[in-house]
Design brief:
With 138 residues, this protein is an alpha+beta fold. It is built from five helices and four strands, in the order αββααβαβα. The chain has a two-stranded antiparallel sheet. Strand 1 and strand 2 form a beta hairpin. It is elongated and about 75 Å long.
Length: 138
């Protein structure tokens, strides 16, 4: 039970860090010992989130590098790097991709301010492409 409460609080803090730089996790009565109930009260910052997710974030940047290597490592045809989705709100990830774009002379780095809308727009565009592909041509 306490494990689930901790997971839920961590998820809530992650979402709150999308809008604020610090989130406070408060879990009253998370456990107890002979002296009585124990509470968890802790501040969690976006920097803390970046450190906690560093392995996953590094693998995302490595995936981008692998993509470029798979296409000959040539960035001349890459005009912009667009970072979108929920992870676009993590400052550590934005900074890593910004550095990667600069090191590969990619002129534009765009980090979405409204990642949910971007994902929805992309899904809409893809859906339209799929429908058009199935329509008979005149």
């Amino acid at each position: 039970m306490s494990h689930q409460r901790l997971r839920d609080a961590a998820e809530g803090a992650k979402m709150e860090l999308s809008a604020k730089s610090v989130s406070t996790i408060q879990l009253p009565f998370i456990t107890a010992d002979r002296t009585g109930p124990k509470n968890l009260i802790s501040d969690f910052s976006s920097t803390d989130l970046g450190r906690a997710c560093s392995g996953v974030l590094d693998s995302m940047v490595d995936g981008f590098r692998a993509f470029l290597q798979g296409h000959g490592g040539d960035c001349a045809s890459v005009h912009a790097l667009v970072l979108t989705g929920g992870c676009a709100r993590i400052p550590t990830l934005r900074d890593a991709f910004r550095r990667e774009a600069a090191s590969r002379n990619i002129a534009h780095f765009v980090c979405s301010e409204a990642p949910e809308e971007d994902v929805a727009s992309g899904a809409t565009w893809l859906g339209r492409q799929m429908v058009e592909a199935t329509q008979p041509k005149d």
